[in-house]
Specification:
Layout lengths: L9 H18 L1 H35 L2 H17 L5 H10 L4 H11 L5 H11 L4 H12 L3 H25 L11 H13 L5 H35 L4 H13 L7 H9 L1 H9 L5 H14 L1 H12 L6 H23 L25 H28 L1
Length: 394
């Protein structure tokens, strides 16, 4: 019988890490300060404006009880596709329109509120924790690569690979709970009444959502600054040199440019820095796009640490989440490679194709706006019918 691998205590790992990092901070104080400023600038200029509105929206959705209401409507869709309760649909929608780690935050909250079991939450977080579309289209595509088409390609491969991960895990997992015993109409009426009786005024609800959103974005900023400092100090101390040399040899063996190794290594720690370095590397565009797709799916140790913090105490296994990130990275690379065979290799267009920038009205944001407008109309219609029914009873 094979004996189990002994588990190293977390306190020992942190202590060893502390003994390794502290001398570098003392020996390179100027570098540590400049790296912290770099992380702060990254947080202020990219993460804060891109994520904070979504964090507030996510908190508002949870505070209003919308997962239960929307779950009653979308249960017939979520069960056959992902073998998840209807409440998970809200996390899918927010996770695909926001960025790391909003999907993990919402999944943890649904588990804590009893809307998901730990097993269901584990499957949900595997494919709903995504890179921000604003980051992929704006920062990476238009900003780093100078091409909106490159951003569209990366975003499309990212979301397609994520959906494939969710569908595959759903097929490999058993149905964990039976369909709701209540008829659809009865359940919808019950959840609607619960939605109308949510406690607190509008100002209180908004204030709590903004407070929790700011708390979460500050945690994200702390992780970002810490890992930027960590990467710069480890690089200056020569600790990453053996890994860099090994990675250069591996890329050369795969007939890829070794100039991509620094970006790939830095992206393993912090995604944003890695994407930026790969975008400016002296390598063919196809190789840069494929490896950028890998980094966007892997997300970096900084994001993984944030996700681990969000999911602490929920019963979700981080080992399975990490394997899902690797699987998504492989799928994203394959999708980008296939698409590059059928589209112009230059990707030099500076404008998004018209089909992707379609506007229904000058003041409404395309297809996403239609979906949210339809939801708003349904809620208003439902409220009007409920009010009319209440007047009739009186």
């Amino acid at each position: 019988m094979i004996s189990p691998i002994p588990r190293v205590p977390g306190s020992l790992i942190v202590t060893l890490f502390l003994l390794l990092l502290t001398p570098l901070i003392v020996f390179y104080p100027a570098l540590s300060l400049s790296a912290a400023r770099e992380g702060l600038q990254l947080w202020l200029t990219v993460l804060l404006p891109a994520l904070f509105p979504f964090l507030v929206v996510a908190e508002l959705i949870l505070a209003l009880g919308l997962p239960r209401l929307i779950g009653a409507v979308l249960e017939p869709l979520m069960q056959p596709l992902f073998r998840l309760p209807g409440a998970a649909a809200v996390v899918v929608a927010v996770g695909f329109t926001s960025g790391f780690p909003v999907g993990a935050i919402m999944t943890a909250r649904l588990i804590q509120e009893g809307l998901l079991t730990p097993a269901e939450g584990e499957r949900l977080v595997l494919f709903t924790n995504n890179a921000s579309p604003l980051f992929m289209l704006g920062a990476v595509g238009a900003g780093m690569f100078g091409s909106s088409e490159a951003g569209l390609l990366l975003a499309a491969s990212h979301y397609m690979a994520n959906l494939l991960v969710g569908l595959i895990h759903a097929r490999l997992s058993p149905v964990s709970r039976a369909t709701a015993p209540l008829p659809f109409r009865s359940r919808l009426n019950r959840e609607w009444q619960t939605f109308l009786t949510q406690p607190g005024t509008a100002g209180e609800t908004l204030g709590r959502a903004i407070g929790k959103g700011m708390h979460n974005i500050l945690i994200i900023g702390g992780y970002t600054m810490f890992f930027v400092v960590l990467f710069r100090l480890f690089s200056a101390g020569g600790l990453l040199a053996p890994l860099l040399a090994l990675l250069e040899k591996a890329l050369s063996a795969l007939q890829c440019s070794p100039d991509l190794a620094p970006g790939l290594l830095s992206g393993a720690l912090e995604m944003s820095i890695g994407c930026q370095q790969i975008a400016v590397a002296q390598a063919p565009l196809s190789q840069r796009l494929v490896l950028t797709a890998l980094l966007l799916s892997w997300s970096g140790l900084s994001i993984l640490a944030q996700v681990a913090t969000c999911l602490a105490g929920t019963g979700v296994r981080m080992s399975r989440y990490i394997l899902a990130r690797l699987a998504q990275g492989i799928l994203s690379m394959a999708i980008v490679s296939l698409w590059l065979l059928h589209i112009p290799s230059s990707l030099a267009s500076a404008c998004i194709p018209p089909i992707f920038s379609l506007q229904t009205w000058p003041f409404w944001p395309g297809f996403t706006g239609i979906a949210y407008l339809a939801l708003a109309c349904l809620l208003l219609l439902r409220a009007g019918l409920s009010a009319r029914k209440g007047v009739t009873k009186r």
